[in-house]
């Protein structure tokens, strides 16, 4: 050093968003590589010459239950942090069991661990909600999915190229790191506030939205279950390639979707992803079982999975504002994902184990894809209409203040709004609750509702989404031309 004094190195401090992504990614890498039909678990089963089908089914079903029920018990960020810390230690203990020969403890460990793992995934919703504004949550989710899958690839390669025990030991190390970082997570007590005004405004609309989204997720992820039972076993002999390439198209799709310009219409990409799923099964039927065929089929299938996973994760992230229990919203939505995988797996298993009179399983898989292609466009159209407000709110929020003002003024003149109604409309377009608007304008919440009713009446509309549509629709149509 020039001055003869040693320099002090400053410790790296992560904000809540980065810290929660690191914690959950470390845990998820263990879950994906081992617990949730992971390569480590299958490598252990191969080493002991056992059929893991029953344990896999029990584990997936337990994850489904954990996701679905977490919101009933975890209602604050503090409780979520406590769940993480206790569960990570339990997962380490469960992993130790698998260093010993198969026994009933394997099945018990898979079931108990999977149930808690589902709960941990749902409970992360508290940090997803508080860690970043809703229009930025798609990037936070993408970061989580990318990092967890990169770590999973490393664990898979260790299990395949070294030994399953080494892979499992490294996965346990990931859990230990997750525990250490989780100790630093904030645990604010104020996250279980009463439901926001929008929930009181239209609870039926929220329920409808969640039902349609879950139906959408279940249908599309049936293909993922079929992939596990039909496609993956056909390329089992390519262990060296599948150990590292399997998730790369998924990661690439996430990276591309994460960095798309905000004004780009994502609807077209969703339809492209549907076509990719169909083409992957067509390729599986028409191509051989070599490395080139695997690269083509897997790239199409996993690329599409990346597009759709980020789509519904981000939609669920926006929906966290609509309910007082973030864990319940995220848990229900992601349980639909697991249910689709479970149903697809059962269908694939039934077909592959049936007698010769049953059609070829790959043909049946293609039929399921075709049915999906028929059903998804109307489902997506309805879903898009329900979520239009959220998508437009994100777009409106990134406009400059001057541009926001100009658009609101034009809409106000068009609807013949009073000055106070224009102020209320402006705050509505910024995604603020009735309570927040009342506080900013120094009026009562009932008065806000009165003005909102007048605004909707003058525009002949019935919702905030339709108001946003009026403000943005004309210019968006001009841009698309």
What does this structure look like?
This protein has 481 residues and is mainly α. It has three domains: 173 residues, Up-down Bundle (Growth Hormone, Chain: A); 189 residues, Growth Hormone, Chain: A (Up-down Bundle); 82 residues, Winged helix-like DNA-binding domain superfamily/Winged helix DNA-binding domain (Arc Repressor Mutant, subunit A, Orthogonal Bundle), CATH 1.10.10.10. The chain is 78% helix and 0% strand. It has 21 helices and no strands. The longest helix is centred in the C-terminal third of the chain and has 37 residues. The N terminus and C terminus are likely disordered.
Comma- or semicolon-separated keywords:
single chain; 481 residues; Growth Hormone, Chain: A; mainly alpha; Arc Repressor Mutant, subunit A; 21 helices; disordered C terminus; globular
- The DSSP helix count reads 21
* Major sheet summary line: none
In the predicted model, the low-confidence regions spanning at least 5 consecutive residues are 1-11, 190-202, 388-394, 474-481
What is the arithmetic mean of pLDDT?
A: 80
CATH architectural category of the largest domain: Up-down Bundle
List the helices and strands and how they pair.
Elements: H1 16-35, H2 39-47, H3 53-73, H4 77-97, H5 104-123, H6 125-131, H7 137-161, H8 164-182, H9 197-201, H10 203-234, H11 239-245, H12 248-258, H13 266-286, H14 291-319, H15 326-352, H16 361-397, H17 401-415, H18 419-429, H19 434-441, H20 445-459, H21 464-480
Helix pairs in contact: 1-2, 1-5, 1-6, 1-7, 1-8, 2-8, 3-5, 3-15, 4-5, 4-8, 5-15, 7-8, 7-11, 7-12, 7-14, 10-14, 10-15, 10-16, 12-14, 13-14, 13-16, 14-15, 16-21, 17-18, 18-20, 19-20
């Amino acid at each position: 050093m020039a001055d003869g004094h040693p320099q002090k190195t400053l410790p790296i401090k992560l904000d809540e968003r980065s810290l929660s992504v690191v914690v959950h990614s470390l845990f998820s890498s263990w879950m994906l590589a081992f617990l949730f039909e992971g390569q480590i678990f299958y490598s252990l089963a191969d080493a002991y010459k056992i059929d893991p089908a029953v344990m896999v089914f029990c584990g997936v079903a337990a994850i489904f239950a954990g996701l679905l029920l977490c919101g009933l018990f975890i209602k604050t960020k503090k409780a979520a942090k406590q769940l993480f810390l206790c569960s990570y230690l339990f997962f380490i203990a469960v992993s130790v069991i698998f260093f010993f020969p198969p026994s009933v403890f394997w099945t018990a460990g898979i079931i108990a661990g999977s149930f808690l793992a589902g709960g941990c995934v749902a409970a992360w919703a508290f940090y997803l909600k508080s860690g970043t504004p809703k229009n930025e949550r798609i990037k936070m989710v993408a970061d989580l999915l990318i990092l967890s899958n990169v770590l999973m690839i490393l664990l898979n390669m260790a299990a395949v190229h070294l030994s399953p025990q080494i892979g499992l030991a490294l996965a346990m190390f990931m859990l230990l790191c997750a525990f250490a970082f989780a100790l630093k997570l904030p645990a604010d007590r104020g996250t279980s506030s009463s439901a926001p005004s929008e929930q009181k405004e239209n609870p039926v609309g929220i329920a409808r939205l969640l039902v349609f989204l879950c139906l959408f997720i279940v249908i599309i992820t049936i293909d993922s279950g079929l992939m596990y039972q039909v496609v993956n076993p056909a390329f089992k002999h390519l262990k060296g390639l599948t150990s590292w390439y399997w998730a790369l198209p998924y990661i690439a799709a996430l990276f591309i979707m994460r960095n798309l310009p905000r004004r780009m219409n994502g609807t077209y990409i969703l339809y492209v992803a549907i076509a990719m799923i169909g083409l992957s099964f067509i390729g599986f039927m028409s191509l051989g079982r070599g490395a080139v065929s695997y690269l083509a089929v897997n790239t199409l299938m996993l690329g599409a999975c990346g597009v759709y996973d980020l789509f519904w994760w981000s939609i669920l992230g926006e929906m966290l504002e609509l309910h007082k229990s973030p864990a319940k919203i995220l848990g229900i939505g992601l349980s639909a994902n697991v249910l689709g995988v479970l149903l697809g797996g059962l269908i694939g298993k039934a077909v592959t184990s049936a007698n010769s009179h049953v059609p070829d399983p790959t043909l049946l898989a293609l039929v399921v894809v075709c049915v999906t292609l028929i059903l998804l466009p109307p489902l997506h159209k309805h879903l898009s209409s329900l979520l239009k407000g959220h998508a437009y709110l994100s777009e409106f929020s990134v406009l400059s203040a001057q541009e926001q003002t100009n658009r609101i003024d034009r809409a106000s003149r068009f609807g013949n709004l009073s000055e106070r109604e224009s102020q209320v409309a402006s705050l509505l377009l910024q995604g603020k609750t009735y309570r927040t608007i009342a506080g900013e304008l120094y009026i009562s919440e009932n008065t806000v509702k009165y003005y909102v009713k007048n605004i909707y009446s003058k525009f002949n509309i019935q919702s905030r989404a339709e108001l946003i549509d009026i403000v943005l629709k004309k210019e968006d149509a001009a841009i698309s031309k």
